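Page 42, continued from yesterday. The earlier attempt failed because a stray header line got pasted into the input along with the sequence. Redoing it now with the clean sequence only.
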Amino acid sequence: MDDERIISLFQQRSEDAIAAASAKYGNYCSAIAGNILSLKEDAEECVNDTWLHAWNSIPPHTPPNLSHFLGKITRELSINRYKAKSAQKRGGGEYDLALEELGDFTSASGSSVEEAVEMELLGKAISGFLRELPVLYADVFIRRYYHLCSIRQVAEEFSISESKTKSILFRVRKKLHSFLESEGLL
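This time it went through. Structure tokens are written below.
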């Protein structure tokens, strides 16, 4: 079923919308949640919560890209669950590793209005920066730091070696650091 039809089902408040979204994007959302959360049950619960959030958001919102919309919901729910679970203990998942690699860029906690504005500006600057990169470099960066895939998963997806993946990520982080410094964002 195409995205327009699924969105239409949500707007009509048809329960078939959830089944259709789950059938089309269930694996995608599960992969996102699984990359962030170590427990399969937590990941499944976040994916189920994604359908509820989509149900509550459509209408009034009509997403221009359903997969990105659902992926973003899943990612935010998974990160929130991860933070809640790791408040008691520190885990060793991809989320921690990715944040450690991006340490220079993730120092703001977003707890104040000023920090939230800074994070939004940072996000827009990074998006612009990524659009200027070769497609492979941008895609590798996004798979690692947005979808939180392991180095091995990224390498396999793009049919490149793990060492090449690490090299690409290192180069992009270095260029990003220089770019953000030149923009006055670091």
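Notes: The mean pLDDT is 85.
Reminder to self: strip header lines before submitting.
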